[in-house]
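G., the chain you wanted modeled:
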Amino acid sequence: MTYAAYRVPELSSSLRSARNRGATVRLILETTSDSAGALTHDGIHAFDDLRDDVEVYCWPLDQRPPGARLHAKTAVADGELAFVTSANLTGHALDQNLEVGVLIRGGQAPRRVMEHFHALMAKGVLRRV
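Predicted structure as C-alpha cells:
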C-alpha cells in the first residue's frame, strides 16, 4: 500500500519475481481522481508492466470521509513480515529522501495488518481496479 508510486523499476522486477514464484501480489494504490487532484500520477502506471500479473485496489472516494487520503505506506508478506514506512514508492523516496521504516518479523502484528486489508477488500472499502 502506498500513496504515491512512480519510477520504481527495481520494485517491479522484484514483484514480478515474487509472482513467478507463485505469490499473490496485491497493490493498494491512490489514484489521481481519488486524491482530489493532490497527486499528478496514478500509482498503477509505475506497474504497467505487471498489470496482468497483480491485483490492484484503490480506496474510492465514496468509501472515504471528505478530504481523506490513502496515506499509509506498508507491505505485508505471508502474514509473517510487515514493513511500515514513511516512504512512498517513488524514486526520490527510495534513493534521495530521508525516510524511516520498521520491519516486523513474526508475532501478531503482520497477520493483523494483512487481515485488516483483507477485511477492507471483503467489505468493498478497498475496491479492485
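The longest strand covers residues 81-85.

Shout if anything looks off.
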